[in-house]
Protein backbone atom coordinates (compact mmCIF):
# COMPACT_ATOMS: atom_id res chain seq x y z
CA UNK A 1 0.00 0.00 0.00
CA UNK A 2 1.55 3.29 -1.06
CA UNK A 3 1.94 6.19 1.31
CA UNK A 4 3.33 8.61 -1.25
CA UNK A 5 0.12 10.46 -2.15
CA UNK A 6 -0.80 10.71 1.51
CA UNK A 7 2.48 12.20 2.68
CA UNK A 8 3.47 13.99 -0.50
CA UNK A 9 7.07 12.83 -0.12
CA UNK A 10 9.54 10.73 -2.13
CA UNK A 11 9.40 6.93 -1.76
CA UNK A 12 10.15 5.61 1.69
CA UNK A 13 13.48 3.98 2.35
CA UNK A 14 13.21 0.18 2.05
CA UNK A 15 14.47 0.08 5.61
CA UNK A 16 11.34 1.88 6.82
CA UNK A 17 9.53 -1.46 6.63
CA UNK A 18 12.16 -3.49 8.47
CA UNK A 19 11.15 -4.30 12.05
CA UNK A 20 13.50 -4.36 15.00
CA UNK A 21 15.76 -7.41 14.90
CA UNK A 22 18.20 -8.81 17.44
CA UNK A 23 19.67 -11.47 15.12
CA UNK A 24 23.00 -9.65 15.06
CA UNK A 25 24.87 -8.27 18.09
CA UNK A 26 24.70 -4.50 18.65
CA UNK A 27 27.43 -2.35 17.13
CA UNK A 28 28.95 1.07 17.61
CA UNK A 29 27.58 3.95 15.56
CA UNK A 30 29.31 5.18 12.40
CA UNK A 31 30.97 8.57 12.76
CA UNK A 32 30.07 11.62 10.72
CA UNK A 33 32.68 13.37 8.61
CA UNK A 34 34.52 16.30 10.13
CA UNK A 35 32.45 19.50 9.94
CA UNK A 36 33.24 22.04 7.24
CA UNK A 37 34.25 25.17 9.17
CA UNK A 38 35.63 28.33 7.56
CA UNK A 39 37.48 31.22 9.13
CA UNK A 40 35.22 34.03 10.28
CA UNK A 41 35.57 37.53 11.63
CA UNK A 42 33.27 40.02 13.31
CA UNK A 43 33.63 43.51 11.90
CA UNK A 44 32.09 46.96 12.00
CA UNK A 45 30.73 48.26 8.72
CA UNK A 46 28.00 50.28 7.05
CA UNK A 47 24.59 48.67 6.49
CA UNK A 48 21.89 49.81 4.07
CA UNK A 49 18.27 48.78 3.72
CA UNK A 50 17.14 46.39 0.98
CA UNK A 51 17.21 47.64 -2.62
CA UNK A 52 13.41 47.19 -2.71
CA UNK A 53 13.14 49.76 0.07
CA UNK A 54 15.51 52.21 -1.56
CA UNK A 55 18.81 51.09 0.00
CA UNK A 56 18.65 53.92 2.53
CA UNK A 57 21.48 54.13 5.03
CA UNK A 58 20.82 52.31 8.32
CA UNK A 59 24.17 53.17 9.85
CA UNK A 60 27.55 51.92 10.96
CA UNK A 61 26.96 48.66 12.87
CA UNK A 62 28.99 46.24 14.97
CA UNK A 63 28.66 42.44 15.09
CA UNK A 64 28.73 41.79 11.36
CA UNK A 65 29.96 38.23 10.85
CA UNK A 66 31.93 37.68 7.64
CA UNK A 67 33.97 34.91 6.12
CA UNK A 68 37.61 35.93 5.75
CA UNK A 69 39.40 32.98 4.23
CA UNK A 70 38.41 33.76 0.62
CA UNK A 71 39.01 36.87 -1.47
CA UNK A 72 36.35 38.59 -3.59
CA UNK A 73 36.45 37.90 -7.28
CA UNK A 74 38.34 40.64 -9.20
CA UNK A 75 35.63 40.63 -11.86
CA UNK A 76 32.65 40.72 -9.49
CA UNK A 77 33.22 41.89 -5.89
CA UNK A 78 29.85 40.42 -4.85
CA UNK A 79 31.26 36.92 -5.30
CA UNK A 80 34.21 35.01 -3.89
CA UNK A 81 36.98 33.69 -6.09
CA UNK A 82 35.35 30.25 -6.06
CA UNK A 83 32.17 31.66 -7.62
CA UNK A 84 29.92 31.57 -4.53
CA UNK A 85 27.99 34.69 -3.57
CA UNK A 86 29.30 36.67 -0.62
CA UNK A 87 26.95 36.82 2.35
CA UNK A 88 27.50 38.36 5.77
CA UNK A 89 25.34 38.26 8.89
CA UNK A 90 24.42 41.11 11.20
CA UNK A 91 23.95 39.50 14.62
CA UNK A 92 20.98 41.39 15.98
CA UNK A 93 19.65 39.89 19.22
CA UNK A 94 19.86 36.85 21.46
CA UNK A 95 16.91 34.47 21.23
CA UNK A 96 17.80 31.96 23.94
CA UNK A 97 20.61 30.48 25.98
CA UNK A 98 22.21 27.19 24.98
CA UNK A 99 24.56 24.77 26.73
CA UNK A 100 27.62 25.99 24.83
CA UNK A 101 26.58 29.61 24.27
CA UNK A 102 23.41 31.03 22.77
CA UNK A 103 21.12 31.22 19.76
CA UNK A 104 20.88 34.58 17.99
CA UNK A 105 18.69 36.19 15.36
CA UNK A 106 20.69 37.73 12.52
CA UNK A 107 19.98 39.61 9.31
CA UNK A 108 21.44 38.18 6.14
CA UNK A 109 23.51 40.75 4.23
CA UNK A 110 25.03 40.94 0.77
CA UNK A 111 27.75 43.23 -0.53
CA UNK A 112 26.42 46.57 -1.74
CA UNK A 113 27.51 47.74 -5.18
CA UNK A 114 31.22 48.66 -4.72
CA UNK A 115 32.44 52.23 -5.15
CA UNK A 116 34.46 53.50 -8.09
CA UNK A 117 37.67 52.05 -6.63
CA UNK A 118 36.12 48.61 -6.38
CA UNK A 119 36.07 48.78 -2.58
CA UNK A 120 33.31 47.29 -0.48
CA UNK A 121 30.71 50.01 -0.27
CA UNK A 122 29.06 48.40 2.71
CA UNK A 123 26.38 45.75 3.05
CA UNK A 124 22.67 45.76 2.32
CA UNK A 125 19.88 43.68 3.82
CA UNK A 126 18.61 40.81 1.70
CA UNK A 127 15.30 40.70 3.57
CA UNK A 128 16.10 37.25 4.99
CA UNK A 129 16.76 36.20 8.57
CA UNK A 130 19.07 33.45 9.79
CA UNK A 131 19.61 31.81 13.17
CA UNK A 132 23.15 31.61 14.52
CA UNK A 133 24.32 29.25 17.23
CA UNK A 134 27.20 31.07 18.88
CA UNK A 135 29.35 28.46 20.62
CA UNK A 136 32.19 29.23 23.02
CA UNK A 137 35.30 27.24 22.21
CA UNK A 138 36.25 27.31 25.89
CA UNK A 139 33.02 25.52 26.85
CA UNK A 140 33.47 23.00 24.05
CA UNK A 141 36.87 22.07 25.47
CA UNK A 142 35.75 21.98 29.11
CA UNK A 143 32.49 20.06 28.54
CA UNK A 144 33.54 17.75 25.71
CA UNK A 145 33.89 14.67 27.94
CA UNK A 146 30.99 15.46 30.28
CA UNK A 147 28.00 15.86 27.96
CA UNK A 148 26.50 13.61 25.30
CA UNK A 149 25.50 16.60 23.17
CA UNK A 150 28.40 17.51 20.90
CA UNK A 151 28.26 20.85 19.03
CA UNK A 152 30.86 19.79 16.45
CA UNK A 153 29.00 16.57 15.70
CA UNK A 154 25.78 18.58 15.49
CA UNK A 155 27.31 20.75 12.77
CA UNK A 156 28.62 17.66 10.95
CA UNK A 157 25.23 15.96 11.10
CA UNK A 158 23.29 19.07 10.07
CA UNK A 159 25.62 19.57 7.10
CA UNK A 160 25.20 15.89 6.19
CA UNK A 161 21.39 16.08 6.38
CA UNK A 162 21.31 19.40 4.48
CA UNK A 163 22.52 17.52 1.41
CA UNK A 164 19.09 15.84 1.28
CA UNK A 165 17.54 19.18 0.30
CA UNK A 166 14.54 18.36 2.48
CA UNK A 167 12.40 21.27 3.73
CA UNK A 168 11.77 19.24 6.89
CA UNK A 169 15.34 19.34 8.22
CA UNK A 170 16.90 22.56 9.53
CA UNK A 171 19.35 23.73 6.87
CA UNK A 172 23.01 24.41 7.60
CA UNK A 173 24.15 27.50 5.69
CA UNK A 174 27.75 27.91 6.83
CA UNK A 175 29.95 27.40 9.89
CA UNK A 176 32.50 30.08 10.77
CA UNK A 177 35.07 30.27 13.53
CA UNK A 178 37.33 32.81 15.19
CA UNK A 179 39.65 32.30 18.15
CA UNK A 180 36.86 32.54 20.74
CA UNK A 181 33.65 31.42 19.06
CA UNK A 182 32.24 28.93 16.61
CA UNK A 183 29.25 30.26 14.65
CA UNK A 184 26.80 27.80 13.12
CA UNK A 185 24.60 29.73 10.67
CA UNK A 186 21.25 28.02 10.11
CA UNK A 187 18.01 28.70 8.28
CA UNK A 188 15.51 30.68 10.36
CA UNK A 189 12.08 29.38 11.36
CA UNK A 190 9.44 32.04 11.95
CA UNK A 191 6.90 30.05 13.97
CA UNK A 192 8.74 28.90 17.09
CA UNK A 193 8.62 25.39 18.54
CA UNK A 194 5.71 23.08 17.74
CA UNK A 195 5.47 22.51 21.49
CA UNK A 196 4.56 26.19 21.96
CA UNK A 197 1.62 25.79 19.58
CA UNK A 198 0.32 22.75 21.48
CA UNK A 199 0.76 24.55 24.79
CA UNK A 200 -1.09 27.61 23.49
CA UNK A 201 -4.01 25.51 22.21
CA UNK A 202 -4.18 23.15 25.17
CA UNK A 203 -4.40 20.31 22.68
CA UNK A 204 -4.97 19.92 18.95
CA UNK A 205 -8.05 18.65 17.19
CA UNK A 206 -7.35 15.35 15.48
CA UNK A 207 -7.39 16.88 11.96
CA UNK A 208 -4.81 19.46 13.06
CA UNK A 209 -2.75 16.85 14.93
CA UNK A 210 -2.85 14.69 11.80
CA UNK A 211 -1.43 17.55 9.74
CA UNK A 212 1.50 18.13 12.08
CA UNK A 213 2.06 14.40 12.62
CA UNK A 214 2.50 13.96 8.87
CA UNK A 215 4.97 16.85 8.89
CA UNK A 216 6.94 15.05 11.61
CA UNK A 217 6.89 11.80 9.63
CA UNK A 218 8.32 13.58 6.58
CA UNK A 219 11.35 14.55 8.66
CA UNK A 220 11.65 11.03 10.10
CA UNK A 221 11.57 9.67 6.55
CA UNK A 222 14.62 11.80 5.67
CA UNK A 223 16.51 10.54 8.72
CA UNK A 224 15.73 6.90 7.98
CA UNK A 225 16.54 7.23 4.28
CA UNK A 226 19.99 8.56 5.24
CA UNK A 227 20.47 6.03 8.04
CA UNK A 228 20.42 8.53 10.91
CA UNK A 229 18.93 8.20 14.39
CA UNK A 230 18.04 11.54 16.04
CA UNK A 231 17.78 10.33 19.70
CA UNK A 232 16.17 13.58 20.85
CA UNK A 233 12.92 13.76 18.91
CA UNK A 234 10.39 15.96 20.72
CA UNK A 235 7.84 18.69 20.10
CA UNK A 236 10.48 21.08 21.45
CA UNK A 237 12.83 19.99 18.65
CA UNK A 238 10.31 20.59 15.87
CA UNK A 239 10.40 24.17 14.59
CA UNK A 240 7.48 25.68 12.70
CA UNK A 241 8.14 27.73 9.57
CA UNK A 242 5.03 29.00 7.83
CA UNK A 243 3.03 25.75 7.64
CA UNK A 244 5.94 23.31 7.73
CA UNK A 245 7.73 21.59 10.60
CA UNK A 246 11.51 21.12 10.65
CA UNK A 247 13.62 18.82 12.81
CA UNK A 248 16.35 20.68 14.70
CA UNK A 249 19.08 20.02 17.31
CA UNK A 250 21.19 17.25 15.79
CA UNK A 251 23.70 17.11 18.64
CA UNK A 252 22.71 13.57 19.69
CA UNK A 253 22.31 12.10 16.21
CA UNK A 254 23.99 8.82 15.31
CA UNK A 255 24.67 7.18 11.97
CA UNK A 256 23.30 3.67 12.13
CA UNK A 257 25.67 0.81 11.26
CA UNK A 258 24.60 -1.69 8.60
CA UNK A 259 25.89 -5.16 7.81
CA UNK A 260 26.48 -5.87 4.11
CA UNK A 261 26.33 -9.25 2.40
CA UNK A 262 30.04 -9.78 3.06
CA UNK A 263 29.65 -9.26 6.81
CA UNK A 264 31.22 -5.79 6.78
CA UNK A 265 29.95 -2.83 8.77
CA UNK A 266 28.89 -0.08 6.36
CA UNK A 267 27.44 3.38 6.86
CA UNK A 268 25.19 3.71 3.83
CA UNK A 269 21.61 2.55 3.53
CA UNK A 270 21.82 0.17 0.58
CA UNK A 271 19.87 -2.76 -0.75
CA UNK A 272 20.85 -5.98 0.90
CA UNK A 273 22.32 -4.34 3.99
CA UNK A 274 20.97 -5.27 7.43
CA UNK A 275 20.35 -2.56 10.00
CA UNK A 276 22.21 -3.17 13.26
CA UNK A 277 21.17 -2.26 16.75
CA UNK A 278 23.30 0.23 18.62
CA UNK A 279 25.21 -0.27 21.83
CA UNK A 280 23.60 1.18 24.95
CA UNK A 281 24.08 4.91 25.21
CA UNK A 282 23.26 5.82 28.81
CA UNK A 283 20.22 7.61 30.21
CA UNK A 284 21.18 11.10 29.16
CA UNK A 285 19.81 10.73 25.62
CA UNK A 286 16.87 13.02 25.08
CA UNK A 287 14.13 14.42 27.29
CA UNK A 288 12.68 12.15 30.03
CA UNK A 289 9.08 12.21 28.71
CA UNK A 290 10.19 11.10 25.24
CA UNK A 291 12.81 8.45 26.11
CA UNK A 292 11.98 4.91 25.09
CA UNK A 293 12.04 2.18 27.76
CA UNK A 294 15.19 0.60 26.33
CA UNK A 295 17.03 3.93 26.59
CA UNK A 296 15.81 4.42 30.16
CA UNK A 297 16.91 0.86 31.03
CA UNK A 298 20.30 1.49 29.35
CA UNK A 299 19.93 -1.40 26.91
CA UNK A 300 21.06 -1.73 23.29
CA UNK A 301 18.54 -0.10 20.97
CA UNK A 302 17.34 0.18 17.41
CA UNK A 303 17.79 3.76 16.21
CA UNK A 304 14.65 3.82 14.08
CA UNK A 305 12.51 2.34 16.83
CA UNK A 306 13.43 4.86 19.53
CA UNK A 307 12.72 7.80 17.21
CA UNK A 308 9.30 6.37 16.36
CA UNK A 309 8.60 5.82 20.06
CA UNK A 310 9.25 9.53 20.60
CA UNK A 311 6.91 10.30 17.68
CA UNK A 312 4.21 8.32 19.47
CA UNK A 313 4.72 10.44 22.58
CA UNK A 314 4.54 13.58 20.43
CA UNK A 315 1.22 12.49 18.92
CA UNK A 316 -0.13 11.62 22.38
CA UNK A 317 0.72 15.12 23.64
CA UNK A 318 -0.80 16.77 20.56
CA UNK A 319 -4.19 15.07 20.97
CA UNK A 320 -4.39 15.18 24.78
CA UNK A 321 -2.24 18.14 25.87
CA UNK A 322 -0.31 16.02 28.39
CA UNK A 323 2.48 13.42 28.20
CA UNK A 324 1.49 9.76 28.57
CA UNK A 325 3.86 9.17 31.49
CA UNK A 326 6.74 10.78 33.33
CA UNK A 327 9.29 8.11 32.47
CA UNK A 328 9.14 4.89 30.48
CA UNK A 329 9.92 2.51 33.32
CA UNK A 330 7.81 -0.08 35.18
CA UNK A 331 7.77 2.03 38.35
CA UNK A 332 5.64 4.60 36.52
CA UNK A 333 2.01 3.35 36.84
CA UNK A 334 0.89 5.09 33.63
CA UNK A 335 3.71 3.47 31.67
CA UNK A 336 2.85 0.12 33.25
CA UNK A 337 -0.81 0.49 32.27
CA UNK A 338 -0.36 1.87 28.75
CA UNK A 339 2.86 0.37 27.37
CA UNK A 340 3.26 -2.90 29.28
CA UNK A 341 -0.35 -3.93 29.97
CA UNK A 342 -1.52 -2.29 26.72
CA UNK A 343 -4.49 -0.55 28.28
CA UNK A 344 -3.79 2.88 26.79
CA UNK A 345 -7.40 3.30 25.62
CA UNK A 346 -8.67 2.52 29.10
CA UNK A 347 -6.23 5.01 30.62
CA UNK A 348 -7.39 7.76 28.28
CA UNK A 349 -11.03 6.89 28.90
CA UNK A 350 -10.39 7.16 32.64
CA UNK A 351 -8.90 10.62 32.01
CA UNK A 352 -12.00 11.69 30.03
CA UNK A 353 -9.82 12.71 27.09
CA UNK A 354 -10.04 9.70 24.78
CA UNK A 355 -9.45 10.53 21.09
CA UNK A 356 -10.96 8.47 18.27
CA UNK A 357 -10.63 4.69 18.31
CA UNK A 358 -8.25 4.74 15.32
CA UNK A 359 -6.05 7.32 17.03
CA UNK A 360 -5.89 5.27 20.22
CA UNK A 361 -5.05 2.17 18.17
CA UNK A 362 -2.15 3.98 16.48
CA UNK A 363 -0.86 5.31 19.79
CA UNK A 364 -1.08 1.89 21.43
CA UNK A 365 0.82 0.23 18.59
CA UNK A 366 3.56 2.87 18.65
CA UNK A 367 3.88 2.98 22.44
CA UNK A 368 4.61 -0.69 23.07
CA UNK A 369 7.29 -1.47 25.65
CA UNK A 370 8.77 -4.27 23.52
CA UNK A 371 10.53 -2.55 20.57
CA UNK A 372 10.22 -5.69 18.43
CA UNK A 373 6.45 -5.20 18.43
CA UNK A 374 6.29 -1.48 17.61
CA UNK A 375 5.11 -0.21 14.26
CA UNK A 376 7.68 0.58 11.59
CA UNK A 377 7.61 3.91 9.77
CA UNK A 378 5.85 2.31 6.81
CA UNK A 379 3.19 0.85 9.11
CA UNK A 380 2.69 4.20 10.85
CA UNK A 381 2.30 5.95 7.48
CA UNK A 382 -0.19 3.31 6.31
CA UNK A 383 -2.24 3.28 9.51
CA UNK A 384 -5.90 4.29 8.90
CA UNK A 385 -5.62 7.26 11.26
CA UNK A 386 -2.58 8.67 9.42
CA UNK A 387 -4.16 8.08 6.01
CA UNK A 388 -7.44 9.73 6.95
CA UNK A 389 -8.11 12.61 4.53
CA UNK A 390 -9.65 14.79 7.25
CA UNK A 391 -6.71 17.16 7.71
CA UNK A 392 -6.83 20.70 9.07
CA UNK A 393 -4.18 22.86 7.38
CA UNK A 394 -2.94 25.55 9.81
CA UNK A 395 -2.77 29.21 8.92
CA UNK A 396 0.62 30.87 9.43
CA UNK A 397 1.89 27.83 11.31
CA UNK A 398 -0.84 27.87 13.98
Your description of this structure?
The chain is of the alpha+beta class. It has two domains: 4-18 and 202-387, Transferase(Phosphotransferase), domain 1 (Orthogonal Bundle); 38-187, 2-Layer Sandwich (Phosphorylase Kinase, domain 1). The chain is built from twelve helices and 14 strands. The chain has helices at residues 4-7, 137-143, 151-162, 194-201, 206-225, 293-296, 303-320, 333-340, 344-350, 357-366, 377-381, 384-387, and strands at residues 38-48, 57-67, 87-98, 101-111, 123-136, 172-177, 181-187, 228-229, 238-241, 244-247, 254-255, 258-259, 265-266, 274-275. The strands form four sheets. Strands 1, 2, 3, 4, 5, 6 and 7 form a seven-stranded mixed β-sheet that branches. Helix 5 (206-225) runs antiparallel to helix 7 (303-320) and helix 8 (333-340) crosses helix 9. The protein is globular. 41% of the residues are buried. Residues 1-6 have low confidence and may be disordered. Keywords: ATP-binding, Kinase, Nucleotide-binding, Serine/threonine-protein kinase, Transferase. It holds the Pfam family Pkinase. GO terms for molecular function: ATP binding; protein serine/threonine kinase activity. Residues 14-25 have a biased composition (Low complexity). This is Protein kinase domain-containing protein.
Amino acid sequence: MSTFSTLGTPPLSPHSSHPYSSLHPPASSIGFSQPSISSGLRIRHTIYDTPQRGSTLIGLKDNILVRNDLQPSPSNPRYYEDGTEIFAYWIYKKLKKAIYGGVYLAYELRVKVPNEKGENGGYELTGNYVAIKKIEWGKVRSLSNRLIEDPLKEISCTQFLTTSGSPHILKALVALSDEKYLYSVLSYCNGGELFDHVEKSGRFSEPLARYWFKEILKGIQVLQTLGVCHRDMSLENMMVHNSSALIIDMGMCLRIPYLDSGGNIVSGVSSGAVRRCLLKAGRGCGKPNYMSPEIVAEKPFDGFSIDLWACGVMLFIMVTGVPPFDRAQPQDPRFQMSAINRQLSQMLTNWNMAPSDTCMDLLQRMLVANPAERLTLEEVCNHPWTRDSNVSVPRHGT
